[in-house]
Amino acid sequence: MSLATKKQTSNQQIKWFDTFTKVMLSIMFVMLLFIFGAGKYMASHQMEAGGTDDLVNTLATDVTKGQHHPFAELPGDAQVGAFSVANFFAGLIVGHHWEKLFGTPKKEE
Using an 8 Å Cβ cutoff, are 78 and 35 in contact? Predict the structure, then answer.
């Protein structure tokens, strides 16, 4: 590789928010909006959605003799679903930018 090519490569800026990243973030936020919207709807209509989190929270409340106060109240396993959606899209985006983050592998000559 010539000196001019190396200089051009080192002066180029890495574009983090390319079209793929923007689309994936948009889809993720729409899906999370639906999950949180459904949770808000279920909470406002006093709907029950049992899940493992409810069992764990009940056990924790019995042991600590106090109520738990989650940051965002989602019924049932909706919180697990929200984290799964966010982690899935974060993995896609990190995978897409893998070489930008960790560099390209050295080629054997």
Answer: yes
CA angle 101, 104, 107 (to 5 degrees): 165
**Residues 66-99: tens digit of each pLDDT:** 766 666 677 777 888 888 999 999 999 999 988 8
> What are the backbone dihedrals phi and psi of residue 85, each rounded to the nearest 5 degrees, phi first?
-65, -45
98: Cβ contacts below 8 Å, ≥ 6 apart: none
CA pair distance 71, 65, nearest whole angstrom = 19
pTM of this prediction?
Answer: 0.53
Would you state the structure tokens that stand for residue 86, as one six-digit string? 């966010």
User: Tokens standing for 63?
Assistant: 């042991």
Mean pLDDT of the chain: 78
Residue 19, phi then psi, degrees to nearest 5: -60, -45
Contact by Cβ (8 Å): 53, 80? yes
d(CA 103, CA 9): 12
